[in-house]
Structures are given as structure tokens and as C-alpha cells.
Amino acid sequence: MSNLRDRYLQDSINTASPAKLLMMLYDRLVLDLMQGEEALRGGDRESANNRIGHAQEIVMELHASLKLDAWDGAPGLANLYSFMLTELIGANVKQDADRVAGCRKLVEPLRDAWREAALAPA
């Protein structure tokens, strides 16, 4: 059963538009941040490390794929990604759930804005 789910997920990723992929990344980032924060608050260091580490990977991917010359806001977004990465590393090292929550509060409006843009009629 797990193999079927993995295959479905991989097929979904392979056939998704760039806008859909971006929405998927942001959705997963928010989920990782929520779960990482909850794990820290619950004292589950291993789970927190896994979720926050995965969130860091997503932020690095978002930063690496950002085209700085595509629009005027791109450099600011790149700076925000760098800030979040620093915060997540610090949160993981210091086991600081509030820093993770702060990153989530930055990401959620971005996720919502990208979703709205992706779903808007062309």
C-alpha cells in the first residue's frame, strides 16, 4: 500500500504545474513548521529535529529556485528566506518553539498569496 501512495505522490509531483509545485512546497512547509513547533512544545526532540530539518530543506529549495530578476519583490523574498533559514537553525539548536512559530507566521500569508495568485483566472 505504501508503494502505491509513494507512486501516486511522485506522479502528482511530476505532472504538477510550476504554480502547483510552489503551492505544494508552501503547504508542506507550513505543515512541517506546525509539527516541529508541536514536537518542541511536547518535548519530542527527535521529531522536532526531523520536521524542522525538512522545513529548512524546503526553504533552501525555495531560495535556490527564486529568480531574483523576475520581479521587484524577489530580492526581498530572498532575504526573508535567508532570515527564516537562520531562525530555523537557531530554533532547532536552542529547541525554541516560539522561533518556529514566528517562521510559520511569516510563511502562512505567503502561502495564501501564492495560492491566490496560482488559482486566479489568467
Structure explained in plain terms:
The chain has 122 residues and is an all-alpha fold. The protein has a single domain (17-119), classed as Four Helix Bundle (Hemerythrin (Met), subunit A), CATH 1.20.120.340. Helices cover 84% and strands 0% of the residues. The chain contains 5 helices and no strands. The chain has helices at 2-15, 18-41, 45-65, 74-94, 97-119. The chain is globular and about 45 Å long.
Strand content: under 5%
Q: How many strand elements?
A: 0
Report the helical percentage. Answer: over 70%
- N/C terminus separation: 38 Å
Number of domains: 1
Based on the structure, what is the oligomeric state of the protein chains? Answer: single chain
CATH superfamily caption: Flagellar protein FliS
CATH class: Mainly Alpha
Low-pLDDT stretches are none
What is the helix/strand order? HHHHH
How many helices does DSSP assign? 5
Return Rg in Å. Answer: 15 Å
Family: Belongs to the FliS family.
Pfam families: FliS
Keywords: Bacterial flagellum biogenesis, Cell projection, Chaperone, Cilium, Cytoplasm, Flagellum
Main location: cytoplasm
